[in-house]
Design a protein that fits this description.
- This protein is mainly alpha-helical.
- Helices cover 62% and strands 3% of the residues.
- The chain has helices at 2-20, 24-61, 65-84, 93-103, 117-120, 154-161, 175-183, 212-237, 242-249, 252-282, 296-312, 328-335, 337-362, 367-370, 376-402, 414-417, 419-422; strands at 139-142, 145-148, 314-316, 322-324.
- Strands 1-2 form a two-stranded antiparallel ribbon.
- The protein is globular, with a radius of gyration of 23 Å.
Length: 424
């Protein structure tokens, strides 16, 4: 009887396995959805960046607190679609190699403009250009060589200044350089308040901060460069684009591995680790992602949403249109419905924890305030979100196994993998 039962069970398992195994055609359909969502996300990022550029032009044509406020709001709006694209970064080397010019952080902002040296310091043993203030100094000296910074053009920012001397903190381009120029330093520590740069910093007629024309030139060039970068990446995912066509022409399992690498690496090492756990361990507002604008809660929320978009095969564009198709979720459900149900539930749980951060910020408690040492309630909000990300990563690993893919090494973080080293 036991032998017969075992044979029946084995036969049932084989039959079920055969019925659930996804074909290459089904896998490619999932990849089609993936590249369509990526293209839409980068296209939306470009569209909202164009709105930011228009707001910057208006600010520079007529500096006022109103036009500065409008430019800041345009920057915040531009972050919404871009953060949702970060799930496409890991697993796609063409995106990861490009990302550094667009979203690098944290930055030594003294490279770019004036800073409060009492709070910031005047030098760093690791970075000779820590407080170089290129806006105030048309010529820079570095290691015995002179650098001509008289023309603050896109080419100069991208090819000379950005990560100059191979120091990652010398961020001269992208969203966060623009953020610093629009808000200035946040000198409030873990207290309330964001950066408070005055609009007169861009007004040659009543200039504060000095060098208003060069500051305007830098902001204009950095914004134009962001448009170039986003236009390039949108093209990479458009029909005929190199990244899109490479994924669709490659082995389907390799494409699925790229999707899951992006999900797991952003969930674990990048978001839970570098962007959240590190700052919480150190109680350091300098480690928050959007540290000048106090927009970090939104950036984390949309990063997490981007992971869920990729798994569910659906993305809502900034104009309300939906891009959707065959999903990784459905593919996992064919093989292991319990894994799919578990992962969908955990992705939703993470989103709820991220919403709690957003709600707290809307209620007047910004992310940097939640980081404060001794703020048990604020710290818990962040830790709860970290725990949810770690929990969902375990289920992403189960999805890898369910699809029969080789084990994937997700991006790590010392704050999670070697926390003792961070306290030394």
């Amino acid at each position: 009887m036991r032998r017969a039962l075992a044979i029946v069970l084995a036969a049932a398992m084989l039959a079920t396995s055969g019925a659930r195994a996804a074909s290459d055609g089904e896998k490619r359909a999932v990849l089609e959805t993936y590249v369509d969502i990526a293209h839409a996300g980068y296209e939306d990022s470009l569209i909202t960046a164009k709105a930011l550029a228009a707001a910057v032009d208006t600010l520079l044509a007529g500096p006022s607190e109103a036009t500065l406020g409008a430019a800041r709001q345009a920057w915040i709006a531009a972050r919404v679609p871009y953060q949702q694209t970060e799930a496409f970064r890991f697993g796609n080397p063409g995106v990861d190699d490009w990302e550094g010019e667009v979203n690098s952080w944290p930055l030594d902002e003294g490279l770019i403009d004036y800073v409060d040296t009492a709070a910031y310091g005047s030098e760093s043993p690791e970075n000779d250009l820590y407080a170089a203030n290129v806006i105030a100094n048309p010529r820079l000296s570095l290691g015995g060589r002179e650098i001509d910074a008289s023309n603050l053009t896109k080419t100069f920012l991208a090819e000379t200044l950005h990560e100059i001397d191979d120091i990652e903190a010398n961020v001269a381009t992208g969203y966060h350089a623009i953020e610093f120029l629009l808000w200035g330093q946040d000198l409030n520590g873990t207290g309330p308040g964001a950066g408070a740069r005055p609009a007169s910093d861009f007004d040659p007629k009543s200039c504060t901060g000095g060098n208003c024309e060069r500051r305007a030139a830098y902001l204009r060039a950095a914004t134009a460069l962001l448009l170039d970068d986003l236009g390039f990446m949108a093209g990479q995912w458009a029909p005929g684009g190199a990244i899109r066509e490479g994924l669709l022409a490659g082995a389907p399992d390799a494409g699925l591995a790229a999707i899951l690498t992006g999900m797991g690496s952003l969930s674990y090492g990048e978001l839970a680790g570098e962007r959240m756990k590190l700052g919480l361990m150190l109680h350091d507002p300098e480690e928050e992602h959007d540290c000048f604008s106090d927009n970090t809660h939104n950036s984390h929320y949309y990063d997490a949403l981007g992971i869920r978009n990729v798994y569910s095969g659906a993305y809502t564009r900034t104009d309300g249109r939906k891009v959707a198709g065959p999903s990784l979720s459905a593919l996992v459900a064919k093989t292991a419905p319990e894994v799919d149900e578990e992962l969908r539930g955990k992705l939703d749980a993470t989103q709820a924890r991220m919403q709690a951060l957003v709600d707290a910020a809307k209620g007047g408690k910004a992310y940097d305030q939640m980081l404060a040492e001794g703020d048990a309630a604020g710290n818990k909000l962040i830790q709860d979100a970290i725990d949810a990300l770690l929990d969902q990563t375990k289920s992403i690993e189960r999805a890898v196994t369910a699809l029969g893919l080789e084990a994937i090494a997700f991006e790590g973080s010392d704050s999670l993998d070697n926390p003792g080293a961070m306290q030394q």
